[in-house]
Specification:
This protein is of the alpha/beta class. It contains six helices and eleven strands.
Length: about 240
């Protein structure tokens, strides 16, 4: 079984400028994804490749001295815009890694730098679930606080508002269970790429529900909240 771990971190960020290398717990944010990748790679003999268009990010990673992280790839400008799809960026670095190392990968694990609250154990369990299935991929989620069958509405064609999902549930507990994609990690089988999917949500996707806190850093207040949880030791687990 051959595994590629991708760490995608482009330079431009409008929501939180420089967020990929912004300090959290006295280390740049990208450190935590790299550390998880390193520990997992040592156990599964995986390859780790960084995908970035930023010399600044690459220099920060160099100073962190992760010897197993391959820094030879430069993400092309066309894959480093706000409009560029993440899957296309992963496909490009996968092709580069396979050519560079003359190998083929059975699985690709993408770790999102801006959603670092994951453990090596999470990755191991999710990979095991995917290996035992015929699914294309698996991605991390948390149980959602809001539910489109019960307390989420949208505008209809007449200009009025109704439930997003047509249903007659009179309590949140009775409504179908829904999940928030927390963007922390995605694991793709080789079949995913062979079938040419462009979205992580396919006709044969699985989820891995985390049993601990995990959320993405999209806005400055998200970073403030994570820093608060970090400083008060309320993350629920030790993040290196």
């Amino acid at each position: 079984m051959k595994i590629l771990i991708t760490i995608c971190a482009r330079g431009g960020s409008k929501g939180i400028p420089g967020k990929n290398i912004k300090s959290l717990g006295n280390k740049p944010l990208i450190y935590y994804s790299l550390k998880t990748a390193e520990l997992f790679a040592q156990k599964f003999n995986a390859d780790i490749f960084l995908s970035t268009d930023s010399d600044e990010i690459k220099n920060v990673v160099k100073k962190l001295n992760f010897e197993d992280v391959n820094l030879s790839y430069n993400r092309p400008d066309i894959l480093a815009t706000d409009q560029a799809g993440k899957i296309d960026a992963i496909i490009d670095i996968k092709k580069y890694a396979q050519k560079s190392l003359a190998t083929e990968y059975d699985f690709v694990i993408d770790l999102d730098v801006t959603s670092p609250l994951r453990t090596v154990g999470d990755l191991e369990k999710a990979l095991d679930i995917l290996k035992k299935s015929s699914a294309n991929n698996i991605f991390s989620v948390n149980s959602a606080e809001r539910n489109p069958y019960f307390n989420m509405v949208e505008k209809n064609d007449e200009g009025y508002y109704e439930l997003c999902k047509k249903a007659s549930h009179f309590s949140r507990q009775a409504a179908p269970k829904v999940y928030d994609m927390n963007a922390s990690f995605y694991i793709y089988s080789s079949v995913f790429f062979q079938n040419g999917y462009k979205s992580a949500i396919t006709d044969k996707s699985l989820i891995f529900e985390m049993n601990h806190l995990c959320f993405d850093l999209d806005n400055p207040i998200d970073f403030d909240f994570m820093e608060f949880l970090w400083n008060t030791e309320n993350l629920g687990f030790k993040l290196y």
